[in-house]
Write a structure and sequence with these properties.
Layout (H helix, E strand, L loop, with lengths): L2 E2 L2 H9 L7 E9 L7 H11 L8 E4 L9 E4 L5 H4 E10 L1 H12 L10 E9 L3 E9 L11 H4 L23 H14 L2 H11 L3 H4 L10 H4 L16 E9 H11 L3 H19 L10 E10 L14 E10 L6 H17 L6 H4 L7 H13 L8 E7 L6 E2 L2 E9 L8 E8 L2 E9 L6 H17 L3
Parallel strand pairs: 5-6, 9-11, 11-14
Antiparallel strand pairs: 1-4, 2-7, 2-13, 3-4, 6-7, 8-15, 9-10, 12-13, 14-15
C-alpha cells in the first residue's frame, strides 16, 4: 500500500495557493576552490546522496473523489536535471542581484505533479563565489524519515563528489482502482476521516491548519486572543522581497555576558529593537505597552520517543512558542529582560535542546530545523501571531559541499496568508546570518528593517545598566 500523507502534510498542500507557496528555502554561498566547483559536480553530489532521501524522488498522487488523503508514489519520470537547475548572474554579480533572484524564485510554487523540491546552482557572483538556492515543500521534510537536502550534501571535510551509479528503479504507480480500494478499506476502519478529507479538499483548509491546542510553553492564555493588529498582518501578494543581515556571534555573546540571558534572547531583542524602529519609521502608533507577537519554533526533547529517535535529529521535536516582543519599550536592556522572562517558561520545562546538543546533529542541521520550524508554524492559526522567527544554531567549524567551502547560509522562511514577514536566523562558523522574507507590497522596505537589526545590536552592545 502506498505511503499516505499525514493530515498535517496534506494540509500544507490544501492551504497552498499562488500567493502563499508552502516551501522553505535556503541560500548557501560557497567559496569556489582552486579545483573548481561546477554544476556537473553538484549534480553528481546530489545524485549520489538521493539514495538516502527516497522522498525526493516521489510525487504526490491524489485519490479519486478525495476519499482519502493523497499518497506518495515514485516518480517514474524523475529527472534530476529538472530539479537541480543552473542559473547565472551577469558577472560580477552582486549580493543584491542574488537576493533579488532569490525573491523571484521563492515566489513561485513548486510543480505539484513532480517531486516537491528544487535547487538552483547560481554562478557569476563576485569574488569567484557560487550560490546554491534550495526550495523544499513543507510536506516533504518531517525530520524523521526525510531531512532537508541542504543537510545531506554538506560534510565536515572537503572531498570530491563520489561517483555513483543511478540504479534506482521506481515502483509502479498504483491504479485508480487500487487507490479507491485502499481508501475504502481505511474508511471502514476510520469512518470519520472520510468527512474530514472531503471537507479539507473542498475548502481552503483553514480548519485543518488552524490548530492551536497543541501550543505549549505556558502560552495558553495568549492563544485565546488574536495577535495585535498592524502592518504585518495583511493579505499578502504573490511577490516577495528578500534581505539578509550578517552579524558576528561574538557580539551576541558579549551582550549576553554583560546583561545575562541566552544568545537566542539577544537575537530576539535585536529583532524587537529593529521592529520598533521600523514601525516608527512608518508612522505607526507605538505606545509603551505595544507588543508584536512572534511565533518562535524551538527544538525540544520528546521524552517518549528520544530512546528510539533517529540519530539524524538527536531525538528532538520542534514546538511552537508564542512570545510577545515588547516593541513599545524604549530601553534595549529592558527589552532583553522582558524577552528573557518570556522564554524562561520554555527553558524551565526541562524539554529544551541546548545549542550544543543540536550541534551534534550530522550534517548541517539548520536546513532541516528551519523546515521543521515552518511546519510547526504552519500547523497554527495565523491570527494568533504577527510573524514567525526561527533560529537554529549551526556548526562553528567549516563545512563543505564536495570541495567547496560553505561561507554563508541564509534561511528563507515562508509567509502565511495574512503575515507579511518571516525571519530565519542561522549561526555558522562565527557568524549569525538573518534571512528576511517579506511581501513585496506590505514589506517593500524589508532591507531597511535589515539595517535596523544591525543598529539594534549595536545599541545593545553599547547599553549600560
Amino acid at each position: 500500500m502506498p505511503d499516505r500523507l499525514s493530515a498535517l502534510d496534506a494540509s500544507f498542500l490544501y492551504v497552498e495557493d499562488q500567493t502563499t507557496p508552502m516551501h522553505v528555502g535556503g541560500v548557501a554561498i560557497f567559496e569556489r576552490p582552486a579545483s573548481g566547483f561546477t554544476y556537473e559536480q553538484l549534480l553528481a553530489l546530489v545524485g549520489a546522496r538521493l539514495a538516502f532521501l527516497p522522498r525526493y524522488r516521489q510525487r504526490v498522487l491524489g485519490v479519486p473523489g478525495h476519499l482519502a488523503r493523497p499518497v506518495w508514489v515514485d516518480d517514474v519520470d524523475f529527472d534530476l536535471n529538472y530539479h537541480v537547475r543552473r542559473s547565472a548572474l551577469p558577472e560580477p554579480g552582486s549580493d543584491e542581484q542574488l537576493f533579488d533572484l532569490v525573491a523571484r524564485l521563492m515566489s513561485r510554487r513548486l510543480a505539484p505533479e513532480r517531486p516537491l523540491w528544487e535547487a538552483y546552482f547560481v554562478e557569476g557572483l563576485s569574488g569567484g563565489r557560487v550560490a546554491l538556492v534550495t526550495k523544499t515543500h513543507q510536506s516533504v521534510v518531517d525530520g524523521i524519515g526525510t531531512i532537508d537536502l541542504g543537510q545531506l550534501i554538506l560534510d565536515e571535510t572537503p572531498a570530491p563528489p563520489e561517483p555513483f551509479d543511478d540504479l534506482w528503479t521506481p515502483r509502479r504507480e498504483p491504479s485508480r482502482t487500487q487507490l479507491v480500494l485502499d481508501a475504502v478499506s481505511e474508511t471502514v476502519q476510520r469512518p470519520g476521516e472520510l468527512a474530514e478529507n472531503l471537507r479539507a479538499a473542498a475548502t481552503d483548509a483553514v480548519a485543518t491548519v488552524g490548530k492551536v491546542a497543541d501550543t505549549v510553553g505556558g502560552v495558553a492564555a495568549t492563544v485565546v486572543r488574536p495577535a495585535p493588529s498592524g502592518p504585518l498582518n495583511v493579505r499578502v501578494s504573490g511577490g516577495r522581497m528578500y534581505a539578509v543581515v550578517r552579524t558576528r556571534l561574538e557580539d551576541f555573546r558579549s551582550v549576553r555576558a554583560q546583561h545575562g540571558g541566552k544568545v537566542n534572547d539577544v537575537i530576539l531583542a535585536a529583532i524587537t529593537g529593529a521592529l520598533r524602529e521600523w514601525l516608527l519609521s512608518r508612522g505607526e502608533s507605538v505606545t509603551p505597552t505595544s507588543t508584536l507577537r512572534a511565533l518562535v519554533p524551538m527544538a525540544v526533547n520528546d521524552a517518549e520517543t528520544a530512546e528510539y529517535a533517529t540519530p539524524a535529529l538527536v531525538g528532538n521535536e520542534v514546538a511552537a512558542y508564542l512570545v510577545d516582543l515588547p516593541v513599545g519599550e524604549p530601553n534595549p536592556v529592558l527589552r532583553l529582560q522582558h524577552i528573557g522572562h518570556a522564554m524562561d517558561a520554555h527553558l524551565d520545562s526541562g524539554r529544551s535542546v541546548a545549542a550544543r546538543g543540536l550541534l551534534k546533529v550530522s550534517g548541517f542541521a539548520p536546513a532541516t530545523l528551519h523546515s521543521l520550524g515552518a511546519r510547526a508554524g504552519g500547523s497554527l492559526s495565523g491570527r494568533i501571531f504577527n510573524l514567525m522567527i526561527t533560529n537554529s544554531p549551526g556548526p562553528q567549524v567549516p563545512v563543505y559541499a564536495g570541495e567547496a567551502r560553505l561561507v554563508e547560509m541564509f534561511p528563507v522562511m515562508p509567509l502565511m496568508r495574512t503575515q507579511a514577514l518571516a525571519i530565519g536566523v542561522t549561526s555558522y562558523h562565527g557568524g549569525v546570518y538573518f534571512g528576511l522574507n517579506g511581501d513585496r507590497k506590505a514589506a517593500f522596505d524589508v532591507r531597511l528593517l535589515g539595517g535596523m537589526i544591525e543598529e539594534a545590536l549595536e545599541e545593545l552592545k553599547g547599553a549600560h545598566w
